[in-house]
Structure formats: C-alpha cells, structure tokens
Amino acid sequence: MSLGTRLEKLLEDVRSSLWFVPSLMTIASFVLSLVALRLDLDHQFPDDAWYIFSGGPAGAGSVLSTIAGSMIGVTGVTFSITVVALSLASQQFGPRLLRNFMSDRSVQIVLGTFIATFVFCLLGLQAIDRTAELNQVPRLSVSIGFGLALASLAVLIYFIHHITRSIQAETVLANVSNEMHQAMDKLYPATLGEAGPEDEREVAIPPFEAEGFTVRSRHSGYLQAIDEDEVMELAVKHDLVLEIAKHPGEFVAHGAPVLRAWPGSRVDERLGKRLEGIFVVGSRKTPQQDLAFVFEQLVEVAVRALSPGVNDPYTAVSAIDRLGDGLAHLACRRLPSPHREDETGSLRLVVSRMTFEAVVDLSLNPLRRHGATDVAVAHRLLVRLGDLAGSMRTGDRRVRHLADHAARVHLEAAAEVQARADRDLLDSAHRRVVAIAAERMAERAER
Asked: Cα dihedral angle (352, 358, 363, 367), rounded to 10 degrees?
C-alpha cells in the first residue's frame, strides 16, 4: 500500500476520533507549563502589573487547585452531555451518523481545552513546591492558569450552544450534504488511470476467468479504499490487465475474489500479495472513496423519520431536498469509464464502479417504499425528480431512468391516497416530470 493511501486512511481515522485533538492540546499545555516555569525562574515580573498574579504561595496553590478541581468536574459533565447527544443522534438519525458527531472539530477542541487546563494547573501546583525552595512564586504560571480558566468558561458556553444546534435535523442534514459535495469533488473526475468519458464503446475484455489469476481477500469487512497509484503502477510494470471486482463500500467476505489479473502466468506469489495489499478493508464504511455512503446517510435519516416510532415527515422532506441537490450535483459530473488505460492507450484496468443510475436507485427505492403512504413525501419526491430531470443538459438514459422512478412513485402513492385533492396534487407533479423528460429527449433527438 502506498504512503498516500496509508496517510489518507490514517487521517480519516484520526478525524473521526475524540482523542487526537485533546491529546495534542494536552501535550501543548505540558510544553506551555515548562516554558512558563522557566520564565518564572529567569525573570522578575513587576508587582504592579495587573495581568500577573501578585499573591503568595498559599494563594497560588489555592487558585490552581480550585481551577483544576473545577476543570475535571466540567470535563466529566461535558463528556456526559456528549454521550447523551450521541445517544439521541443515534436513535433519531441512525448509528451511521455517529461518525459525523465524533468528527466535529468543535467538540474535540472543547474537550481538549478542559483537559489541557486541568493538566496545566496540576503541573503548576507541582511547580509551586519547586519554586518555594527558591522563595519564589510561579506568578506567570498562575496567571496563565487563570486565563485558561476564563477561556474554558467561554468554551463551555459555546459548547452548550453548539451541541444544541448540532443535534437539530436541519444542521445534521446540512453537514451530511456538505460532506456529500466534498466527496463528489474529490472522487470525480477519477484519477485511476486515463479514463475517458462515460460511453457505450465496445472494448475487448481479456478472458479473466479462463486465463487470469484470481486474488482473494484475506479479510472480511467493507472495502474502504483502493490504492489507486499502486494498482496502476503494478499493471504497467508487469504488463497486466487487472479487473477490480469490488468497488469501495461493498462487503468483502473472507476468500472472496477481489481482483483478477491477465495473463495469470505473469503473477507469482509475491506479486499476488502486493495486489491483495492494494485493498483497504475495515469494519465499517467510510466516505474515503465510497460515494454511495453519504447518500445512504441521507436515506437513513429520511427512512427513520418515516418510521411509525418517529413519524416526522418534515425531516424526511428536508432529507429528500438534500438528496435531490446531491443527485443534481452528481448529474453534472462526467463519470469515468469502467475501462482505464495507461498513457500509451493500452487497457490496464477494468473497474467495478458506481453509476449515476445505481446512486439514484439506492437513494429513491427505500424512500418510495416507505413514503408511499405520505402525500407530502411522495409529492416532494416527484417535485425533486422533475427538478433533477430539468437539470440534465440533454436527454439520455439518465432522464429515462428518472422518469421510470417518477412513474413508480406516482403509481405506489396513488394506490394509497384516498382524497381526490391529494390524487390531483400527485397527478400534477407526475405530469410535470413526464413533460420535462419528453422535452429533454426531444432535445437529444434534435442533436
């Protein structure tokens, strides 16, 4: 596995942890304590400076011990509030979104501030005993500790405000939507070889099953990433054509085929291990290279909102709006061909990929099934499908796919709706989708 892929995976793990930033801030407070103690020993601060502590050893110890005791108590309360917020978010929005809350940099900095202040004050208390032998008081250390206490108070107020906003449905959906756009900006256009535009051209595929070498996974879990640089480098170096059978986000069973190499006679045991090492398999899905993951998060929020236990169609409607925006953003991207070539134009990779139609299916199928009985949800699905079809530059199979989904939404919802006014509302929205789709197809025919 290349260094870049390792660093990318490490960065994703660190970003979604609650320990990394607090640990860095704790180390910084330790260094700051050493610097402040050295300044206390080497410099004489003026007695009339308002920003420097002017009390004696007893007063300094009392201030630092009070701050340290308060900080450890506030830290415990903050952890408790965080756990409660995570529990509520898991119940309302789904356990997948816990990663988003744990990745919240603001919460990490808040926890780090409290712990760093506590550690600084403990080290300051130890410094009082050391400086007492020299008839000195660590005045700068006490002053910094007092300043950190005031900063912690401000951070606590901010934390209460932030955690209250962060568990609101609109904030959660906005954060997931932003992550979705970032994932699309990162993944498309793909960099896995020289990929042409998405087309229907005929490509001669080597006989992988008959003459190829099969690489099987030694681990079970979700495919999180593929080392793009190394797989192309190996294919070119050994003059191979590689078929990647899995795409990020799929579950890989132990012993399942993940890659085939042709011709198989050129693959020895050492090369087979290197090819197996290009796959990063973990216990959970990540957005590192899995575009569907962020769409699935929005779908999960909407489906949970439509469940009888929650019964919150307004949150479902908001999630549908975000999904529509994400699909429109994806529709403007040129998805790469599954056939990747090297710089000389030779076929090197045959890649399993997530198509636009597949993303639409995984986004809309669950919502159609769970939202058919709710007029507001079904109507919003039809409205967003019409907007999405209208955002297409030309009519093609994507527009036909959207029209098919609209027909299914309309059929299933109409079967559940009893009121005439509601049926008219759905009929009108469906006719709009049909008209937009016909217009786009006509534009395509003219070209």
From this structure: -130
Q: Tens digits of per-residue pLDDT, 360-410?
A: 999 999 999 888 889 999 999 999 999 999 888 656 788 999 999 999 999
Which tokens hold the place of 293? 């993951």
Mean of the per-residue pLDDT values of the chain: 85
SS3 193: coil
Tokens of 98: 């816990």
Is the model's pLDDT at 40 over the cut of 70?
yes
CA distance to 11, 15, 98, 395, per residue, from 288 (Å): 10, 12, 16, 31
Domain ranges of the chain: 13-167, 181-189+293-333+354-446
| Residue of 368, 361, 354, 357 whose CA lies nearest to 415 | 368
Q: Give the Cα separation of 398 and 406 in Å (integer).
A: 12
Which residue do the tokens 């216990």 mark? 283
How far is residue 346's CA from residue 240's CA, in Å, rounded to a whole number? Answer: 10
- Rounded distance, CA 311 to CA 299, Å? 15
